[in-house]
Write a structure and sequence with these properties.
By secondary structure, this protein is of the alpha+beta class.
Length: 297
Amino acid sequence: MKQSISINQLTCKKCILCTEVCPNKILIKSESNEIVFRPDRVDLCFKCGQCMAVCSTRSITVDGLSYETNFFELPGVESIGYEKSFYDMIRTRRAIRNFKDKPVPKELLEKIVEAVSFAPPGFPPLKIRIIVVQNTELIRNALPHMIKFYDKLVAMMKQPVYRFFIRKETGEKKFKLMQSHLIPLLISRLPELKKGTEDTITRKAPAMILFLSDKNEEDIGQDISIAATYGMLASHSLGLGGSIMDLIPPAINKDDELKKIFCIPDNHEVVTSLIIGFPKYKYQRGIKRNLKSVNWI
């Protein structure tokens, strides 16, 4: 196994922020009080750069990433307001998966909803329905049902007959994504999800927005993607953090109890979800990314 993460123990402050922000919980604090990576999870590193972005001493290196090439320093502001430029706003936005144990005021959620309403539809009128979950307890009560759903999915994917029908229902592209990424992640995460020692599904978010579509109407998936992006940017501008969570919709759509918990109307399905809350940690730098290709014609 090739080591893809290294940590400079001489400069590391042992602040454990990297262990908190890593989406796959690859980094941990050892018994000798050093930050190390879990050998059983290091292969799950998809080089998101979160650990390097949060480290104040630049002590972490992920193969293929460098502080000089792949990151930029963030301005010293706690939030980006409407007065700031659009460029500064999108440069400083990050997908947030660690939140303070603090409720999101309804007036802030209302501003996010207003921003979502400005998202342009492919064909008017806007057909997107949203459900704003401001009751944190509902999210916590839903998590065990989601864990049960994914535990069953992992078991089904081991059976050729079930695999055949899952492939047929999801389509080849989604099935490949499930087989290559989702299932290996779930196999790694489920033991600790079931023990309650981590939450890599709802991320202990205090609030959430569900984006719905009517099964009997035309496909509005692209409209919903744009609307959810508006919601993420609005969250950031208000000093909040948000992240699209693709694990949540399938569980709700396949579980009648979850549909009741979140009051999903008949003949509707959840297309995507946005978790929202106050960021628990402050990032020190942004992550540079390059498009796969750019052709000028």
